[in-house]
């Protein structure tokens, strides 16, 4: 039985077929211009991942789609990204284990499960996003806050059962939108989220554009102070919502408090979040917060498949011994 852990995020798609090595590519699907003639029955060219990112930066008339927007699912691009991930991993899985925002609707989950089953011809498991990280860390009772690009998801588990959770429409994008405006006002240039990540996480990095025959650059130091202020109020919003969710819970549950997602890697974010919870519990982080959900989905799928396999074996054994019993019974009678 082959499981695949698949985490399709607003910004990155992460997938693994062994729970250790994770393939990552940008969650972008680009549809090229409609063709005048279609000889292969394809009316539009579809580009996925790195290729899509390159295409949207260099061609006009392309329509770019992301799988999640404001915590809602866009099916068509989601399925393109899922197919691409399996192609890159070069695997035909028996089960795909994946996640959706905690506050996704039941209908959304059912539709996604149906699409995956029909189009990828596999079984499917869908978890609330942060559960992946908890499973990866071997925690069955605890709290996980996942700061992603588009949403922040909070989940509380007790003995591997969902107790409470929430989805905030505030992710890294909120922070980046604000910094982007500051840079635009300061230097008159627009920067991409990818450039912003480098600018914030690499000390000597510079972003530049040529304007009117001149070089205009922005460096890490130019945005440091404003970033610090914005980051603090951003973390403050996320921690106050988390505290609302934790209100009234037993300390035994909150003892394991995990922060994950790419947002937790931005400078100062983890430290600020930890400080805000110093009277509650120690905040811990997985070794790689970007890939930990995908690895955890894999682990969960594997455990569930093994349990199912054992159940089936036990049933088979019970059937066999029943049949044996009958046979013996018959023999006796004869
Ligand atoms: N070293 C890094 N490399 C890449 N991204 C980083 C790094 N450090 C911080 N980040 C931030 O992490 C973000 C991606 O986080 P993550 O992969 O958890 O989001 P996502 O899963 O795509 O989004 P969501 O869960 O909201 O759908 C990037 O947009 C970037 O801002
Ligand atoms: Mg995510």
TrEMBL record:
Key words, A-Z: ATP-binding, Cytoplasm, Nucleotide-binding
UniProt-listed InterPro entries: Actin, ATPase_NBD, MreB_MamK-like
Location of region: Disordered: 311-334
One Gene Ontology term of the molecular function aspect: ATP binding
Protein's name according to its UniProt entry: Actin/actin family protein
Record field: compositional bias (Basic and acidic residues): 311-326
One Pfam family linked to the record: MreB_Mbl
Localization, UniProt: Cytoplasm
Species this protein is from: Archaeoglobus veneficus (strain DSM 11195 / SNP6)
Cellular component GO terms held in the UniProt record: cytoplasm
Chief location of this protein within or outside the cell: cytoplasm
């Amino acid at each position: 039985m082959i499981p695949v852990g698949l985490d399709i995020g607003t910004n990155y798609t992460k997938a693994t077929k062994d729970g250790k090595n994770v393939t990552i590519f940008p969650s972008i699907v680009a549809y090229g211009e409609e063709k005048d003639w279609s000889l292969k029955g394809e009316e539009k060219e579809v580009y996925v991942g790195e290729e899509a990112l390159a295409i949207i930066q260099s061609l006009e008339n392309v329509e770019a789609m992301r799988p999640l927007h404001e915590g809602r699912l866009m099916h068509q691009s989601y399925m393109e990204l899922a197919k691409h991930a399996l192609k890159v991993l070069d695997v035909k899985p028996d089960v795909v284990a994946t996640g959706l925002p905690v506050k996704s609707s039941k209908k959304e989950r059912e539709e996604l499960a149906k699409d995956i089953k029909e189009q990828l011809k596999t079984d499917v498991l869908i978890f609330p996003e942060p559960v992946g990280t908890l499973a990866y860390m071997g925690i069955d009772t605890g709290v996980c806050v996942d700061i992603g690009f588009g949403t922040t998801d909070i989940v509380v588990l007790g003995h591997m059962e969902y107790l409470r959770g929430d989805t905030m429409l505030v992710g890294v994008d909120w922070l980046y939108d604000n910094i982007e405006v500051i840079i635009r006002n300061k230097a008159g240039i627009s920067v991409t989220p990818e450039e912003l990540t480098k600018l914030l996480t690499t000390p000597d990095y510079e972003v530049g554009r040529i304007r009117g025959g001149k070089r205009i650059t922005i460096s890490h130091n130019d945005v440091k102070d404003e970033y610090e202020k914005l980051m603090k109020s951003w973390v403050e919003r996320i921690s106050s919502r988390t505290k609302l969710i934790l209100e009234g819970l037993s300390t035994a549950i909150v003892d394991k408090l995990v922060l994950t997602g790419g947002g937790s890697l931005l400078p100062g974010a983890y430290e600020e979040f930890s400080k805000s919870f110093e009277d509650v519990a120690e905040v811990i982080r997985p070794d790689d917060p970007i890939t930990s959900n995908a690895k955890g989905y894999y682990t969960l799928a594997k455990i569930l498949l093994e349990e199912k396999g054992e159940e089936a074996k036990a049933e088979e054994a019970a059937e066999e011994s029943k049949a044996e019993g009958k046979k013996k019974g018959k023999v006796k009678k004869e």
